Amino acid sequence: MSEKQGSPPSSPPLDKETLFRPFVSNKPRYQVIEHIGEGGFGQVSSCFDRFTHRLVARKTLKPSQRNNLPQMRAMINESRLVSYLEHPGIVPLHDVYIDEENNFCYTMKYIEGEPLSEWMRQHALRRQPFPTAWCLRIFTKICETLSYAHDRGVLHLDIKPANIMLGTHGEVMVLDWGSGRLFQPERYENYLRHIGRKEEIEPLVNLEDRLIGTPPYLSPEQVRGHKDKLNPATDVFCAGVLFYQMLTGYSPFSTKTTQKFVQELMHKSPKTLHERRTDIPMRLSQIGAKMIAKKQEERYQDFREVLQDLQDFHTQGSDFEVRTYDAHEVIFNQGEVGDHAFQIIDGVVEISVMVEGESKIIAVQGRGEIIGELAVFTKQPRTATVRAVQPTTVQLLTAENINNELEKLHPWVGHMIYRLSQKFIDLNQQVFESNEINHLS
Fold it and tell me: Are the C-beta atoms of residues 334 and 311 closer than 8 Å to each other?
């Protein structure tokens, strides 16, 4: 009987030889597709894995380094270190092998995306800083990954934009652990003991003869060569430099020459984040400054402390309502009675007043500006009309919200702000009454 039309052809009978043929072939398992990039001593390519039919990233030594035994040892060290660290923010390692040309290689998950360095380069060309909220989201994930590594007794020591991969599906991966160092080797030893193979496994070693880190993302102790002082606060400093650059587009210290960088790193206090970019909140600026304190004891001691302060910062103002207005939409009209002000989160507004029956624009305000602040306390009629020039997002500020936020500050600070507000209200009332008298006369 013939097969029914449209039915799939029957499969030939299978045997082990047929099934195992791809796995015992003399062809290389990994077929190179294209070169992706390279670092200090290694190069990375995308490859097709014939066994699993998946795309992977493969790292090998550069051709010029393939007979360099210390570099080979460093790469073997890195492969074991990455295998030891299993975290969503660290690219998982798949396989380690010697290829047909007797080169040491390892394969890892292929991440679609771009390094943070490329994102920063594009923003620099457009002269646009990263949005603060975006920076905080990315940086928080970086901190979480490094906090995990520290809990496992491992330092990264080469945190820089080129070593942060931003995946197309929201991944934030910390790459290149070739400079990684065990600052608490007993944790790795306990790990080996736990899996019952300590006596069979060569331990990880710290490669003391290698340069650790990359200017201008170095801490003072790295520049001084104080390897005995490298600890989690060192990675905090390097990450703080990255954070500063992400938010401002500038490095806190000179990048003109290594000599100039070292001089400023050791002897000059950089501008704060807020001084570089005035719309950055003071609290965030304080967090950034503490991360890059020159003395280790004055910095955050680990990323748990950094994450806690970032979380506290996120929760500030969480009760404030956010509204979005279309271009040309009126936010409030002159003469209306209001009990709230607003801060512009994104966008631009124009402020106008009626003069002899005609509308006159008196100001244009953008991100970070606060509008209508007197209404919070006085509930007087609005003295101007505010209209969105482009799609604009604002955060509403009411007296209740502000008082709740003041309660988070030291009592004398809250009292001082309240007294200054009252004096400003009284002064405004005097000006208002004076204008009314002049108008009547």
Answer: no
CB 292 within 8 Å of CB 252: yes
Instruction: Return the number of other C-beta atoms located less than 10 Å from residue 88's C-beta.
Output: 13
pLDDT tens sequence across 221-252: 999 988 889 999 999 999 999 999 999 999 99
3-state secondary structure of 227: helix
The token pair at 437 is 């008298």
- Selecting from 1.10.510.10, 2.60.40.1600, 2.40.50.140, 1.10.3210.10, what CATH number does the domain 113-315 have? 1.10.510.10
Considering just the CA atoms, what is the radius of gyration of the chain in Å? 30
Tell me the percentage of the chain whose pLDDT exceeds 90: 48
In the three-class reduction of DSSP (H, G, I as helix; E, B as strand; rest coil), residue 47 is classed as strand
User: How deeply is 260 buried, as exposed, middle or buried, from its count of CB atoms within 10 A (0-12, 13-18, 19+)?
Assistant: middle
3-state helix, strand, coil in the chain (%, to 5): 40, 20, 35
What contacts 85, CB < 8 A, 6 or more positions away? 148, 149, 152, 154, 177
